[in-house]
Hints:
The chain is mainly α. The protein contains eight helices and three strands, in the order αβααββααααα. Helix 3 runs antiparallel to helix 7 and helix 4 crosses helix 7. The protein is globular.
Amino acid sequence: MTSQSRSAASRLTSPSGSLTTPTPSSPITVKLLYCEAILGHTFTDKTILLEALQMDGGLGLVPYNDICFQIPKNKRLAIVGDATLDHVLSLEWWKSGRDEGSWTSLRSTLTSNSALETRGKSLGLHNCILMNPGTLYVSMEMMARTMEALIGAVRCDGGDVAAERAMRKCGFMEEMGRGGKARM
């Protein structure tokens, strides 16, 4: 666990003073396992994944593995994910030999909020988001930010190779098509 994730995930007890023990069937554990399967990455530091899924306002109290963690909203990981998406996709674009003008179109096709929402929901990741109990549905912005945060979380937990592998598993590279031609 990094010093940043340690500070982001302070140990706390529940209001009654007891700790909640998640079982394999606890809702949070199920969400984490499902998300890891979709991404093709098993997190060494689960608090990073919890942060990527956290859309509850401010710091949310999240029980996991006999401890309640105070987890911040996923905005910071979304910034890392946005940069990671650009980095990995631009390298794939460069390898394809396509002209400069195609990069803007390709980037927009793959990383717009609408595209990220569509991809996230088609993968079922909207079911993993930790939301305020009063929130009735996952908005486009919530899903897009969570997709970015998940890619950022994989990079922070497993490095560049793990992030690229997760992006491939989520279908980001399919748009490049065969023979270096992007399908738009």
